[in-house]
Amino acid sequence: MDLDAYLARIGYAGAPRADLETLTAIHRAHLLAIPYENLDVQLQRPGDVSVQHAFDKLVTQRRGGWCYEMNGLLGWALAEIGFKVTRMAGAVGRTERGEISHGNHLVLRVDLDRPYIADVGFGDGVLEPVALAVGPMTVAEYDFRLEKLDADWWRFHNHALGGAPYFDFTEAAASDTTLNTTCQWLRTSPDSIFTQFPIVQRHTPDGLVIILGRTLRRVRPGERTQALIESADAFVDILAREFGLDVPEMAALWPAICAKHEELFGEKAN
Question: 30, 40, 67, 183: which is the annotated catalytic residue?
Answer without folding.
Answer: 67
